[in-house]
Amino acid sequence: MNQLSASIRYTFKNYLVVLPLFFASLVPEILIRTLDISKMPLLRSMLGGGSPADTTALGDSNEWLGSLLLEISPYILPIGITMLALSFIANCISWGSAQLSLEEKLPSFSSWPASLARLFLPYSVFSLAFLLAILVASAGLFAIGSLVINQATIVMIINVFWLTAVIFLMARLALTFPYMVLKRLSLFKALKLSWSTGKPLFLPIVRANIMILVASLGVSWIAGLFSDVAAISMLLTSLANGFAGFILVHFSLSLAYQTLNEKDQEPIKAE
After folding, report:
1. CA angle 9, 15, 16 (to 5 degrees)
2. How far apart are CA 217 and CA 36, in angstroms?
3. Rounded to an integer, what distance in angstroms lies between the CA atom of residue 219 and that of residue 173?
4. Are 12 and 229 contacting, i.e. CB atoms less than 8 angstroms apart?
5. Tell me, what's the pLDDT at 42?
């Protein structure tokens, strides 16, 4: 709790540090709101706007889905690429800023943020593979379970499995990237170190993520009250994302920094 409080105080005291993540959240939302769905009849029909699109010539649902993807891809792909690029740049700046607040200097062997960018690439691939593994496991569980029990029960089991797996693995592997940043470790060495040090930090990490999630949802709910005023709603949501994102970055990096210092100060055992 002390680490989380320190991260919250640092973020609000140095509020400009949230700007990269703020803009990474705001710009894509502005782009999405500028989409002209009048040029996308299938999407407009699905959202209930205007007259229903003529889908009689599209055949089955797979063909309809393919047509919908072809219709929206020219608009969604540029936004998706923009989101990824902004997120990548914003995270590099945010992690570097958090590291500066703890160590007061960056590693001399490599320039920043180039070195951070090189660390992000393998970690991003791992994160996507992790998510895909959870999805595949859920799909397999659904396929097997649907043969022996009713659908409602298997959906509930999948939800419990998903939540338990994500929370457990997230907490045990939460310090992977912080260790990569602080010690410039390889992905697999950082995973091993995070797994070995993550057990006593399980509850603090889960508690911090839940508290920040609840706070973000609260701000998002307030932003929803201003849905008629798009600018206020977008600004509030993006500010919440910026503050929540940087607090989590600073918190996880602080925990990793603390555990590394404690590890260095452990007495050497006599052989």
Report:
1. 150
2. 28
3. 28
4. no
5. 57
Determine the Cα angle at 65 with ends 60 and 67, to 5°.
100
pLDDT greater than 70 at residue 73: no
Say if CB 250 and CB 7 are below 8 A apart: yes
pLDDT band for position 149 (50/70/90)?
A: low
Give start and end residues of each alpha helix (H) in the chain: 2-13, 19-33, 41-46, 61-103, 114-145, 151-172, 176-183, 187-197, 202-225, 230-264
Residue 175's nearest CA partner among 188, 191, 199 is: 191
Residue 146 CA to residue 152 CA, distance in Å, equals: 9
pLDDT tens track for 192-233: 888 888 778 888 888 888 888 888 888 888 877 776 777 888
Question: Rounded to 5 degrees, what angle do the CA atoms 48, 31, 214 make?
Answer: 80
Q: Find which of 11-20, 34-43, 132-141 is predicted with most confidence, using mean pLDDT.
A: 11-20
> What's the pTM?
0.73
Separation between Cα atoms, residue 242 and residue 182, nearest integer Å: 22
CA-closest candidate to residue 171, choices 257, 91, 240, 251: 251
Residue 12 CA to residue 20 CA, distance in Å, equals: 15
Beta-carbon contacts of residue 184 (< 8 Å; ≥ 6 apart) = 107, 109, 110, 115, 119
In sequence order, the 6+-apart residues with CB closer than 8 A to the CB of 65 are none
| C-alpha 108: how far from chain center | 29
Q: What is the mean pLDDT of the chain?
A: 75
